[in-house]
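[INFO] parsing input record for Valine dehydrogenase (NAD+)
[DEBUG] input buffer:
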Amino acid sequence: MSALDADVFELGSEHEQVVFCNDPASGLKAIVAIHSTALGPALGGTRFYPYATTADAVHDVLNLSRGMSYKAALAGLDLGGGKAVIIGDPATGKSEALLRAYGRFVQSLDGRYYTACDVGTNSLDMDHIARECDYVTGRTVAHGGAGDSSVLTAYGVFQGMRAAAEQVWGTDSLAGRTVGVAGVGKVGRHLVRHLIEDGASVVVTDVHQPSVDRVRDEFPQVTAVESTEALVASTLDVYAPCALGGALTDDVVDVLSAQVVCGAANNQLAHPGVEKALQERGILYAPDYCVNAGGLIQVADELEGFSFDRAQQRATGILDTTRRVFELARSEDVPPAIAADRLAERRMHDVGRLRGLWLNPR
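[DEBUG] output buffer:
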């Protein structure tokens, strides 16, 4: 047994199942992590990313899948938490053969895990995967799917931001506020649109310059800065991390002028204790998995036969869910991140005890 094997059992001690998928002919190297099926089958996206090491990929998929359990529970869905990562550069390594090989591995889990889009994958990729697999969401509209889940992800983040604004400034409007958005890819670009329409001033940054150019072409009033460091150091009312995880480090919290942090990125807290540092500085943190659940709600709706209007109505509920988190945080005198965990854990315990380990009831 290698050190990595030992780490998997130690790091994934909360997880029900971790599966390594390998198809040398197509170049597929993937990991599927199922954190919990207490509330139902696990649903979570497939991230295609050039991890430096397999250990990095393992850490990411374990963290992401755990977050999906909490996200589904807090969103009121009868779904568990899972996630998958494909190790490689999607720009050069993605192929039909690789995606279909991956689909066969997901199929072998017999419905305990449903996949969807994530960083590095899109709805067209889900269509390829679905040619070998019955357990796929986030497919193209042409194939009866929800299409791009970033639409309702951004919409949900905006609802969470409204709830945070209400707590801090007494109004659920962002009009007149300056919002810094770090990462203006699929989700960040849609979030910018909501903010501009609501009357906010927006400052953006992204490591991918074409993404910045696209946003500024669409919204010329948006200001761009060269780096996340420059954005964080700016005078902001709201900071919205919308790129990869770990955005809220001790250094960021120390220099942040924003009174609210609310963004789409997963696993924003760089380490345990950051949530307390935010609270001590008087910064209201809207827990990431609470506010970014709109994409999950969107693809989960496919399981009933997709209706965008119905999914959007459900995603609007993120406003009230975020309010509940803030209310519990205030009543129990804990940071919102802890309050969100408590609400999710209560539902997983209360409902999950009725179900136990989920098996495909065929």
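[INFO] DSSP finds 16 helices and twelve strands in the chain.
[INFO] shutting down worker
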